[in-house]
Design goal:
alpha/beta; Rossmann fold; 2 domains; four-stranded parallel sheet; two-stranded antiparallel sheet; 8 helices; about 15% strand; globular; disordered C terminus
Amino acid sequence: MTVALSLENIGEASQSIDPVFLRSPQFVSAELSDRLGRETVVKVETFNPIKSFKGRGADYFMHQVPSGRTAVCASAGNFGQAIAYAGSARGVSVRVFAATTANTAKVARMRELGAQVVLEGQDFDAAKSAARDYVRLHPECLFVEDGHDARISEGAGTIAVELDRMHMDALFASLTGGDPPSRDIQRLG
């Protein structure tokens, strides 16, 4: 599956997503710089309410979901937390399907953020299958899959916008994870 990304949308996302996810700390890593033979900047994406970059993409995606709708996803933790956080801010109900073996702290955090968490199956794939089945039975719900909607990747791409302001010779930013393989943007604009 190919997801067409828009640099214009990434720029728009950098202006519209919740500021709590923007302008994350970054620093030059002396160790990595020495090993790679060039200045290497590391961006820290754990200083936000969900402790993950996933909040950027989830927030940008949830801008398009009308209040009162229910978003359904499968998650091992971070994406579910991100969708729950963004949904709560916009009056969108969130139902997260997670494996019965999911990290209990992440499950608890998804619930704290307002998601209804359904534990289903022994692994992520079984939980995702259950989420899809639920949406088939409840067509008023919206199925959200991490990395399968351009807006999620475009929200994550705001990391690259922030790094690009440093005028680097090269910039690599992973915009999705898992399946399908990551798509990268090299040097924005």
